[in-house]
Amino acid sequence: MNTSPPEIEHGRFGSGQSVRRIEDPALVTGQGRFVDDCTEPGCTSLVLLRSPMAHARIVSIDASTARALPGVLAIVTGQDLIDAGVGTFPGPAPHFKRPDGEPVSAPPRRAIASDCVRFVGEAVAAVVAETPEVARAARDALLVDFEELPAVSGLDAALAPDAPLVWPGAPGNIAARSSYGDPAEVSRIFARAPHTVAIDVVNQRLAPSPMEPRAVLASFDATSERLTMRLSNQMPSNTRNALAQILGLPKERIRVVVGDVGGGFGMKTNAYPEEVVAAWASMRLGRPVKWVADRTEEFLAAVHGRSLRSRAEVALDATGRVLALRIDTLADIGAHVTPSSLAIPLLIGPWVSTSVYDIAPVDISISAVMTHIAPLGAYRGAGRPESIYIIERLMDAAARRLAMDPAEIRRRNLIAPAQMPYRNAMGQTYDSGRFESLLDQALARSDRQGFDRRLEQSRRAGRLRGRGVTTFLEWTGANVFEERVTVKVSADGFIEIFTATQAMGQGIATSYAQLAVDIFDVPIDRVRIIQGDTDRGEGFGSGGSRSLFTAGSAVREASRQTIEVARGHAADALEVAAGDLQYRGGRFEVAGTDLGMGLFEVAARQPESNLFLESRTKVDGPSWPNGCHVCEVEIDPLTGVVVIDRYHSVNDVGRVINPMIVVGQLDGGAVQGIGQALCEQVVYDGSGQLLTASFLDYAMPRAGIVRRFDTQLDQTTPCLTNPLGVKGVGELGTIGATPVVVSAVLDALERAGLGHRVDALQMPLTSEKIWLALQGELPALPSGATR
Amino acid sequence: MPRVSININGRTVEREVEARQLLVDFLRSDLGLTGTHVGCDTSQCGACTVRVDGVAVKSCTMLAVQADGRAIATIEGMTGPDGSLHPLQQAFMDCHGLQCGYCTPGMIMSSACLLEEEPAPDDATIEQALQGNLCRCTGYVNIVEAVRVAAATMRER
């Protein structure tokens, strides 16, 4: 695949083709329906007052001036919500344990803090007013008396012996710890291995930053006593359930509606405090309430991702075979313990710690450390980018130590196709994968032979050049494999398919429509994909690159079942045997006769002029997409600026439904991963103040960061756990891009004379950091653990 | 309240506006032109880009009263009266230059300004022209290509 406009076989819109997206006409004409584009009669505005301090006791709130402003409808405090019986956010799964073996304990998280704030940006009070301007003025008139308390920011501060505790239930500020593998055996192997390599690896904290900030439009209908919540959200059902639990309502009384979502990337998978406040205020005032985050609020109070620091070690034999792996990780989960802030670093990440390599035994430990900063959550890849980055940094460091080619050390450790299905050291089973083939293809596509020539050209131009290679995989599916789909064939000539997975820009509606066209054999404009309405169906939603292989499989199965039901009706109407009817082009026909009936005609004969079918389909397990990325960078040593000169990838996402969309996911995902490698970083100072609270300070990739991608799809290894043979793709590009770009930059710096000292460098590899390294200013490598 | 007369997408509207109201809020709230989006509050993201007398302007950096007597073009005005798409709109679809679509109106308005000034831009020129527009989904490569394809289409006309 390349970036030229995709070819379309005219008149056919089934799977396997780069069909233009059905989502696009509305979006390119300004007709999208994002939450803030919607309003309702009598709509009011909600704004929040947020804590300016990382840790403080709320002594008092004087709302008298604010309350008196014309147009102010309500001032809401944490105590108001408690008095009204509003509950706390769901805590983490109880199976997580503290280091002392006790079950994890979480500070009660409320929509508005009532006694104590634990991070800058935590809500302290809310204002509902007739207009946003009045609401903001009233917020600014609220007088809060804070008693500032000592705060911890950063892992070292949190783990210092006398550190203030974020929560008494987390002694030593460690909320939970998980350990996997066989530490004794790993120690034995390390003691006698010919080589061991130890490095420190930081997966810095990132802000997911979808371009559409979060927003809520809550609307309570007193007659039906139902609350409608219009949200920008990836998991409408789960969010509805959480809101119902917090608000103390039966879940049937809340309807979550999602229109267009301006990017999610995992950040919009959970319920948020602002949604609770908007819902409660709407019920109390009997009027619609809208809240729209500004960007600073997103940096302050939406979840962040990554945020790990690891000591990672491998033991190797003389040929570069890895004998054992040891990783000890500290995750900075921030001030609240949430389901995802533990599951991502402590459970999901470790599943892929050994990646595409045949490595056992392992010794993996992860501690969830609490600090007075914003909570951690899901961000594109959620645990997998962190683990893959760690093992890839180790592979590069080991290659440098053993003076081996980075591609060769990987090759020697790859799992072979004959080992499939392969159970990794964490007990996860890979169904399929031809990792060495992908490596070979990527090396060939990237013109490895020509590297020396390009290196010389760069040298002559006064620039450094380096190349990186990354082989990797990821787990997808969120371990929720069943999807419910409804199909309605209407007499008016449309097939409407509902799924509870959720579009957020990934083009999933187009992909589902293509799968439906495969079965119904009608033009794609006859198919309408409906999502984002909890009144129409429940499900897990979209996250973990799961939608296509779970719900796509369900769309195909439901479509097939619908045809069979319709065939029965047609047979009855035509007084023929169902087995004599052939279906083609939207029509049942008796072969060799002119006897037949159209699908929509069958629908017209049904009681309500439609044919409705509900179906549940379950796939057998997760999918394991994988790839090999190769990147070359040039660095200007005078400025430290990195230019990504060449970027090649070969990707196994199984069978491909829409190559254009898949390549778009891979390339766009890669640029997010490159953002982590080169520029993005959430920075708090030592007092817990956020220093990167705008796009001025948080550096996002801009146009031109990559000029061209060569992105290949290898479809020779279909997934064996779902009937479509597809593997997840949403997170894959992001996961591969971060390590490969870092690998290329470090290679260039090593060649510039820095040697193994480059293994001490941490992301983001900004031009400043690179320039300083070239002047000899690098962090120290771990001492004593490498031989 | 000040009264403004603004030509919006070829049609003159006269309204009273609050002196402090931003142009983007006027477009979205008062006129219902919600295709112009807000993605930040520091004029970094460019989602709110419109054209003011032909020039690409972030409509969060301008007051509605400052638009008095000016001609404003928004994404809604890019489509022809017969519903036909502007070459940029078509090219963004053809080149998969959008995913979530939130940044797209701003991207298209910035690009439209570029193509009027430079009908045959090279990649570097397009990338430079889009430095003020953030996209989190596409990685930009397809956006740059869409602008190049649209430029070629427009030159042929």
Could you describe the 3D structure shown?
The complex is a heterodimer of chains A (787) and B (157). By secondary structure, chain A is α+β, with helices and mostly antiparallel strands. Chain A has 3 domains: 6-30 and 478-618, Aldehyde Oxidoreductase, domain 4 (2-Layer Sandwich); 37-149 and 213-261 and 268-301, Aldehyde Oxidoreductase, domain 3; 305-476 and 622-774, 2-Layer Sandwich (Aldehyde Oxidoreductase, domain 4). Helices cover 29% and strands 23% of the residues of chain A. In chain A, helix 11 (384-402) packs across helix 12 and helix 11 runs parallel beside helix 19 (732-754). Chain A is globular, with a radius of gyration of 28 Å. Residues 1-11 of chain A have low confidence and may be disordered. With 157 residues, chain B is of the alpha+beta class. Chain B folds into 2 domains: 3-78, Ubiquitin-like (UB roll), CATH 3.10.20.30; 87-156, [2Fe-2S]-binding domain (DNA polymerase, domain 1, Orthogonal Bundle). Chain B has 5 helices and 5 strands; from the N terminus they run ββαβββαααα. Chain B has helices at residues 23-30, 87-94, 104-117, 123-129, 141-156, and strands at 3-8, 11-16, 49-52, 55-58, 71-73. Chain B has a 5-stranded mixed sheet with strand order 2-1-5-3-4, with helices on one face. At the A-B interface, helix 1 and helix 18 of A face helix 2, helix 3, helix 4 and helix 5 of B.
Integer count of domains of chain B:
2
> How many helical elements of chain B?
5
* CATH architectural group of the largest domain in chain B: Roll
N/C terminus separation of chain A: 43 Å
Query: Which architecture name of the largest domain in chain A does CATH use?
Result: 2-Layer Sandwich
Please summarize what this structure is.
The complex is a heterodimer of chains A (787) and B (157). With 787 residues, chain A is an alpha+beta fold.
